[in-house]
Design goal:
Elements lengths: L14 H8 L3 H9 L6 H14 L17 E6 L5 H16 L3 E6 L4 H12 L5 E5 L5 H8 L5 E4 L9 E4 L2 H14 L5 E5 L6 H15 L8 E4 L6 H14 L5 E4 L2 H14 L8 E3 L16 E3 L2 H18 L6 E3 L3 E3 L7
């Protein structure tokens, strides 16, 4: 599924533009950027207001290089330890490296303010392209990127109003598939356990997809979504799973926002003598390597982790090296992987 990419492009805002709007000399703007404390609070506030209004990004490539884009691609991900994103970044770097492009990488810890700071910093080095994870950014980040004329690829998600191009899949459909799989296996009281749902918009979309699937089925109990917060660990997931079973002994299925949380539930089940899947069926998300070897093996949904990185690189290289506008939207889909934790 694809659409023709729309053209974007504006002239880059200069320090002189900021100075003119703030009613100060360009040297004052320069000083503010280098040492904000050296500028009076009154002038500093005027300069900051002008910077925010104009979406100004200082260009650190001075002189003759200032108008030249570097062969660098800025990449922003929520986490560099998460295997989902590690595989994507590795595939992306491999293709970019082969085409003589380098990467700048930053991780946000799912914090929009951190993402804004990273984008502003990366843009100041005149990158050839920018890659972000997901579609949910704060207003300043979006405005900065919309004001550039470089390729911007948002990955790991699909949705409306992209900045430029999208490569990913529909997370709501993942949640619906997870829930429907358990329903088809005869489960009727199914809960969802996730982490950081207030910040991780993709996990939140999977939770909503799960809930929609249960609400549309006449024989299932109402959905219950449990958010264990920022501690996305096996221990926290195991504790949440134990508390759920104690409070609702009739639960016979659990959907997890990722495989790591499902592994925590498996650990608790083994310690407590809870038969999986006879007592409770479990399904995760991510198809991480340990799912093949867990006891029982873990049912999951496999996202195209590596292919996302490859297709993002292809999009960037086609635009930068070949001038190819290419598709606006690339839907890579996902795969249901049925193993022992949901089969009996």
């Amino acid at each position: 599924m694809s659409e023709t990419r729309r053209r974007r492009g504006t002239n880059r805002t200069t320090m002189t533009d900021v100075a003119r709007m703030a009613g100060v000399a360009p040297s004052t703007v320069s000083l503010y950027l280098r040492a904000p404390e050296a500028v009076s609070p009154k002038l500093g506030m005027r300069v900051k207001k002008a910077i925010d209004s104009l979406n100004y990004v200082p260009n650190l490539m001075a002189g003759a290089l200032a108008a030249t884009r570097t062969r660098v691609v800025g990449v922003v991900v929520p986490s560099i330890v998460n295997s989902f994103f590690a595989d994507t970044v590795t595939a992306l770097q491999t293709r970019l490296w082969a085409a003589n492009y380098q990467m700048l990488i930053g991780h946000t810890h799912y914090d929009p303010a951190t993402e804004e700071q990273l984008v502003r910093t990366f843009l100041s080095w005149s990158p050839g392209a920018m890659v972000l994870t997901g579609l949910h950014h704060n207003r300043a980040t979006r405005r900065m990127l919309e004001a550039t004329d470089i390729p911007v690829v948002e990955m790991w998600e699909l949705g409306p109003q992209p900045i430029d191009r999208l490569v990913g899949f529909a997370h709501g459909d993942v949640g619906r598939m997870q829930a429907r799989h358990l329903i088809e296996k005869g489960r009727r009281e199914i809960a969802f356990i996730g982490a950081r749902l207030e910040r991780d918009q993709r996990a939140a979309q999977r939770a909503e997809g799960y809930a929609e699937a249960l609400r549309s089925h006449s024989e299932t109990a109402p959905p219950e979504i449990i958010d264990i917060g920022r501690e996305a660990s096996t221990a926290a997931a195991g504790a949440a799973f134990a508390a759920l079973l104690e409070r609702r002994p009739s639960i016979d299925g659990v959907v997890f926002s990722n495989d790591l949380l499902a592994l925590g539930a498996l650990f608790h089940a083994q310690r407590s003598g809870i038969a999986i899947p006879d007592r409770v069926a479990l399904i995760g998300f991510g198809d991480l390597d340990f799912g093949h070897d867990s006891v029982p093996t873990l049912s999951t949904v496999a996202p195209p982790r590596t292919e996302i990185g490859e297709r993002v690189a292809d999009q960037i290289l086609a635009r930068l090296d070949d001038g190819d506008e290419g598709p606006l939207r690339v839907d890579l889909g996902f795969e249901l992987v049925v193993r022992e934790s949901s089969e009996r």
